[in-house]
Automatic annotation (TrEMBL):
Keywords: Coiled coil, DNA-binding. Signal peptide: none annotated. It comes from the Archaea. Residues 15-52 form a coiled coil. One of its GO terms (cellular component) is cytosol. Belongs to the PDCD5 family. This is DNA-binding protein ENM88_08890. GO terms for molecular function: DNA binding. InterPro entries: DNA_bind_arc, PDCD5-like, PDCD5-like_sf. It comes from Thermofilum pendens. Pfam families: dsDNA_bind.
Amino acid sequence: MVGEGAVSFSDEELEEIKRRRLAELQRQLESARQQEAQRAAEEARRQEILRRILTPEARERLSNLKLVKPEIVEALENQLINLAMSGSVRVPIDDETLKQILMRLSSRTADIKLRVSFT
C-alpha cells in the first residue's frame, strides 16, 4: 500500500533517473580527472623550473624542509621562481643563497609573530 504523498515511478522512469544520475557522476569523475591532470602538469612544470634554478644541494635542502614544514615550502618555491625569473638572484641558486633567503624569511615571520602577540 502506497502511503499518502508517496511518489511512484514506473520502471522506465526509474531507469531514466538512474541513467541521468550515472551520466552526472561520469561527468563529475571526468572533471576531477582533468583537474588532477592539470594540477600534475603544473607541478611538473614547477619542479622542472626548480631543477633548473637550484643546485642539487639547494634542492636537497628544500626537500628536507618540505618534510618538516610543508606549509611554507610552496610559497618559498613560488618566491624562488619569481626571484629567478625577475633576475633578482643569480641562477643557479646555491645552498648558501637558499640559506640566506630562508634566514630572511624566518626573521620576517618571527617579527610578524612578535607583533601579533604584543598587540
